[in-house]
Amino acid sequence: MNKEHEEIASRYLFTNMAITNLQLDRNHLEHSPCKIKEPYFQALDQLISTAIQDRKQLKQLMYQHNIQVEHINSDRLFSTYKYYLNGYVHEVSFFNPVIKKYVTNIIYELLTKPINFNKHNSIHTK
User: Which residues neighbour 30 within 8 Å (Cβ) at sequence distance 6 or greater?
Assistant: First the structure.
């Protein structure tokens, strides 16, 4: 079993969770009493888009190396996944607070990447 393949599988798993979390945050913002939402929507949409591009690259690597990830079960403390790594099956249990830490770190990484706002990125005065 290759450690690099396991890292690819884990990165894919946590990137996918980060996307889900950001989409939920966007949904919460949509239904919040916040008065000015558009800049936050643009920022979240850019983060989601960047994360989806990252996930796509990871998925391509997974395909090339015959890697798959399957969710087995979750409870209050642990979540268990099966990694299919080039013919080997590896079951991995994660402590849920550790998952949260990994997902948070991925979101921080996304925040450090350049953001490309298409509109309203400067203030015009007359």
Answer: 37, 41
End-to-end CA distance of the chain: 64
Kindly tell me if the per-residue pLDDT of 118 is higher than 70. no
Backbone angles phi, psi at 8, to 5 degrees: -60, -45
Exposed / middle / buried, residue 64 (Cβ in 10 Å: 0-12, 13-18, 19+)? exposed
The rounded distance, in Å, linking the Cα atoms of 95 and 74 is 10
Beta sheet of 67-74, edge-to-edge order: 67-74, 78-85, 88-95
Domain segments of the chain as ranges: 3-112
Q: What angle do CA 75, 81, 86 make, to 5 degrees?
A: 175
pLDDT at 125 over 70: no
CA quadruple 50, 55, 58, 60: dihedral sign: negative
